[in-house]
Amino acid sequence: MALFEVSLPLAVLFVGFGLTVGIRFGFFGMGGSFFVTPALLVLGHSAPTAVGTGLAFVFWTSLVATVTHRDLDHIEYRLGLLLILGTTLGIEIGRRALLALTTVGLADLVVSFLSVVLLAAVGLFVISDGRHPAIETDEPVGVQSSISARLERVRVPPTG
């Protein structure tokens, strides 16, 4: 029996993997192609297919997570809009770079290498962060950079 032209055991594996990534996405606020793209590369998919599938996965999981966090009032819309601007430009640059690498036959190698570097860097950051426990105090955090203070003053509908 096949589901979406994939064998049933492989479909179950992907659903289980999606569940695992979804839990991480909801808990840590990250997931998506961070886990999906390397997994698809390991399973033998080409870099462009792995990246595109990872982006499609991120789109839908982000939509669900955004609605959930909106209901919990956990979204800073102004910051999100600024991130979207940078992300849009970054996606276009990344798309062009991936196409250029595909043309010369280096896409799989470069995407795999950068995935390993990124995962290692995040792992080292988490280990470093875990070695320095947060200082517990009754005082409110309240330390803001001038950039974050200016961002909070920007009025963006519907919050402004």
TrEMBL record:
It is a multi-pass membrane protein. Its main location: membrane. Belongs to the 4-toluene sulfonate uptake permease (TSUP) (TC 2.A.102) family. It comes from Natrinema salaciae. GO terms for cellular component: plasma membrane. The lineage of its organism: Archaea, Methanobacteriati, Methanobacteriota, Stenosarchaea group, Halobacteria. InterPro entries: TM_pro_TauE-like. The chain crosses the membrane at residues 6-27, 39-63, 75-94, 106-127. Keywords: Cell membrane, Membrane, Transmembrane, Transmembrane helix. It is found in: Cell membrane; Membrane. This is Probable membrane transporter protein.
